[in-house]
Amino acid sequence: xxxxxxxxxxxxxxxxxxxxxxxxxxxxxxxxxxxxxxxxxxxxxxxxxxxxxxxxxxxxxxxxxxxxxxxxxxxxxxxxxxxxxxxxxxxxxxxxxxxxxxxxxxxxxxxxxxxxxxxxxxxxxxxxxxxxxxxxxxxxxxxxxxxxxxxxxxxxxxxxxxxxxxxxxxxxxxxxxxxxxxxxxxxxxxxxxxxxxxxxxxxxxxxxxxxxxxxxxxxxxxxxxxxxxxxxxxxxxxxxxxxxxxxxxxxxxxxxxxxxxxxxxxxxxxxxxxxxxxxxxxxxxxxxxxxxxxxxxxxxxxxxxxxxxxxxxxxxxxxxxxxxxxxxxxxxxxxxxxxxxxxxxxxxxxxxxxxxxxxxxx
Length: 362
Hints:
The protein is α/β, with parallel strands linked by helices. It is built from 14 helices and 12 strands.
């Protein structure tokens, strides 16, 4: 046993003696999507021959590449104490300096002191880039790289597969099933206080509008902290099914049960649900936020509405419910549009645009 322990210690210490490894920094697995992003990037970078790891404790490291995918981990940590031999990168998915949210204001208050300590700030969409430019972030300090998706985990079901999955989930064959797979409640409890940037109140208003016309409407929910939405659906009398998935890899079959996916956020860096829907052949209606604003070509591979415009969102959803050919068009276009967003392609951008100048070609 002592020999095995010594071998384990030697392996750990040898890693920390290596220079210019890539460490993706997260707080913990509770950060959910951010943690999964770090996992996928690390996996793909390893396939490219990079020494890539995840760490929750970057502060003692020296001569490494430290990429903070969680701005809270960076700005609330003692970033000034990071050793100057490290190359530091920071990802900032979304945030408007005019947002009155206390947490967001605190991040922007801390950002000026942090700017000299990181090499590059990565944003996932143009809206975030513009917000940071308006705030005063130097353009040469930023680069835009989208959030990726593991395309291989998603696929278009056959009619028989779709029928079977619906039966397993308890969704009637004739139901118009609309998906919402996110966390839109504050905290990690029941989620009765809405996280308004995710637009759960907008989602409920659109569903309520649709329910007037479609008696067979149904909503499929995943994700934690969905209490506010579930209570709202019960009030308007729309049936729903909610599953919290311990294993994110299970999400693919839930998309296969859908007819449409609805994004009603006020602010986004993603959402990753856009790419997952496209990879599953599910048409998307979205507010003009985050990556949908960059990637949805209105009328070609999806439909966009301005933030909080519930009337237009309802009209778009109705149009897709009624138009089978348009749903097929969007399904096909989405499958093509998502291919460059596979994690293998996104990791290549991280490597080429951020790390290669430090590490050389892999």
